[in-house]
Specification:
The protein has 112 residues and is of the alpha+beta class. The protein has one domain (2-109). It is 37% helix and 20% strand. The protein is built from three helices and four strands. Strands 2-1-3-4 form a four-stranded mixed beta sheet.
């Protein structure tokens, strides 16, 4: 499948990552929108052949931190794992790496 990369946008796994404003400190709510735009740019090339990234503020705590879709249809974690498996990506390792990358990006953004 890697030979057919990049996939058309509607065939990519959309990863919606909802970021808590508090991750940016006490004034995070005033920075979260800009941060999400920067994260969108930062992650644009990460697994870009088969993943489309969407970063948004996590305003609704009832929604999951990470959500997966293809063609605007929600996927379960199991379905997302099967999709990632096609590209030799382990679901747990993929999520762990995303969390590590976003933590590093937050640290850079905050000047640490």
């Amino acid at each position: 499948m890697k030979d057919n990369l990049p996939l058309p946008q509607d065939k990519k796994l959309t990863v919606i990552f909802r970021l808590e404003p508090g991750c940016l400190g006490p004034q995070g709510s005033s920075h979260i929108d800009d941060f999400c735009q920067l994260a969108q740019t930062e992650f644009k090339s990460f697994n870009s052949g088969f993943v489309h990234w969407v970063f948004v503020p996590r305003d609704d705590k009832s929604l999951p931190e990470m959500q997966y879709q293809i063609s605007e249809k929600n996927l379960t974690s199991e379905q997302a794992a099967k999709f990632l498996d096609i590209f030799n990506q382990n679901f747990v390792e993929f999520e762990d790496l995303v969390h590590k990358k976003i933590a590093i990006f937050i640290d850079h953004y905050l000047g640490h």
